[in-house]
Amino acid sequence: MTPRPVLNRSLLALAGLVLLGGGLLILFAGLDIYRRHDLVPPTGWPLTTPDDVLLGSADRARWSSQGWLWWPAVIAALALVALLALWWLLAQLRRRHPGALPVGGTPPQEGVELRDSALSDAIATEAGALPAVEHAAVRITGRPAHPRTRVALTLTPQASPGTVLDVLCEGPLQTARRSTGTPGMPTEVRLQVAGHKPHRAE
Amino acid sequence: MTPDSGPPGPSSAPSAHCATVPPTKEPDPTERNVSSSNLKAGEDDRGHRAHRPWSARRIPAAMVASVVLVAAGAALIDVVAVRAGRPAAAWRRHLADELATRPVDDIWMLTGAAVAAAVGIWLLVLALTPGLRHWLPLCSPAPGLRACLDRDGAADLLRDAAMRVPGVSKARIRVRRHRVKARADVRFRDPHQVKDDLTAALGHERDQLALASPPRIVVRVRRRTH
Question: How confident is the model over A9-22, as pLDDT tens digits?
């Protein structure tokens, strides 16, 4: 698994925990659950009774009377959060392409490289010519050292997915493996079937 | 009319199909070694057991990132403006006043808190579940290769197989992750016989799909004379 899903999921979980915690904090105090069930919140707990407000006057006074270092620190923290959010957003919009793949092993000083688009076009052409394949689209993603192939096939209604997968593995993917010299390129294949009306096939 | 608990004969066949695929790759130790050195540990055993692919969760991540970006950016601009001597923006004064005057048992505070908690639970579910429920994982013929089949595509293929059974005039297939429900209208022949044929045909077609976890097949037939 590439790091991006892990990052996305960790940050989503963090955001979810913050929202859930904040919401539950307000709900517990607002519905007076502590008193009804004889729960004693620890000392310093922010919200305990239904009359509490989120932004008390004591808080406002404390924040306003902080020293000169306080506001630059707030500005720096906000700028950092905004920049990280911008970077996270851009990471979703960008798809990573390896550009050129080294051919025949890792040393790039040999100078033999293959454009990722050439490789994906070659795989797509060969896969599209397979029997029972109506359309093939191939994308190479990842870094040059760890390229990944994504193959999306649209099958004809007469296809058998297991057979197509075997043929794809023996044919185009084998060729790609042989021609790039990277034997274990991780590959993800997604199969769809061309939509068609039900009919009595005699 | 009664639900059937799967085909009688070939129900063990699909798992046998999956199990026979990896050993064909075993006798070639050099290729295994080369490939496993290039792969991460988690990807190597997908050749043996196909898991559902995990979604990258791009869209929820982009939405959360946008919200955080807008909130932090607006707060940043306003804080800087106040430090530069200008008055605070109206939204900030309004927000601070509301937060300072509304107690937490106010209906708006409670609604907002409940919505926030629900969104938080939803984000946690998104973070912890694989997603991509629409894609059924397939038996992988080689290590490092992962394949999955669209649910609608599987339903179309199964429907075609059902339509090839003599006597079936109309077939509707619903594919779920662990169960396939087939409902067929029978125009001629004995419905029980058609049902047996249909179960066998669907079981055969399901094995053709090479799904990693073959779903159970439930067949219902209905006599339709006109």
Answer: 999 999 999 999 99
